[in-house]
């Protein structure tokens, strides 16, 4: 059965890939001066910001019920990092949209854009690390399935 945890796990990888590839395109555009990479970075950033919104929403639903107890602190850390990532993706995307719309292209705006994008990539990395810790160190959202083990057959033996 598909749950919010499964949906979150499926969605989260898209904004990570889109934003990381967008950042790489941005860096290449900075040094190569090729318009292709500049446009690719712009559209990947927009798609990544939309994906980050979907990932944040799905993560909110996936985290319901585990906000208290032994996972309270790791969950809170991941949630706060995810919120920071979401805001940085929105701010970075809006900064680029405003520059694009007003056709404002100055050297300082390129470096501010790179700085914002770098902070976003750092936030993505930290959020992903904390999410990985939730799953792999704390077992959040993991269902135990052992080969040849059927818990319902144990009830029949009694």
Please provide a written account of the structure.
By secondary structure, the chain is mostly helical. 79% of the residues lie in helices and 0% in strands. It has helices at 4-11, 13-32, 35-62, 72-102, 107-137, 151-157. α1 packs antiparallel against α3 (35-62), α2 runs antiparallel to α3 and α3 runs antiparallel to α4 (72-102). It starts with a helix and ends with a helix. The mean pLDDT is 89.
In summary, what is this structure?
With 158 residues, the protein is mainly alpha-helical. The chain contains six helices and no strands.
Helix content: over 70%
Integer-rounded radius of gyration: 20 Å
Q: What's the order of the H and E elements?
A: HHHHHH
Shape: elongated
Number of helical stretches of at least 4 residues: 6
**Percent of residues in β-strands:** under 5%
**Termini gap:** 28 Å
């Amino acid at each position: 059965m598909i749950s919010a945890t499964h949906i979150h796990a499926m969605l989260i990888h898209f904004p990570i890939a889109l934003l990381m590839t967008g950042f790489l395109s941005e860096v290449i555009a900075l040094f190569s001066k090729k318009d292709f990479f500049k446009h690719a970075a712009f559209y990947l950033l927009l798609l990544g910001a939309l994906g980050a919104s979907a990932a944040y929403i799905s993560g909110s639903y996936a985290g319901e019920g585990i906000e208290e107890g032994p996972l309270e602190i790791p969950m809170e850390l991941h949630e706060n990092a995810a919120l920071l990532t979401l805001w940085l993706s929105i701010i970075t995307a809006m900064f680029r949209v405003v520059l694009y719309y007003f056709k404002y292209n100055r050297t300082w705006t390129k470096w501010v854009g790179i700085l914002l994008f770098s902070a976003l990539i750092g936030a993505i990395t930290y959020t992903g690390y904390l999410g990985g810790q939730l799953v792999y160190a704390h077992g959040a959202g993991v269902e135990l399935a052992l080969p040849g083990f059927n818990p319902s057959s144990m009830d029949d033996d009694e």
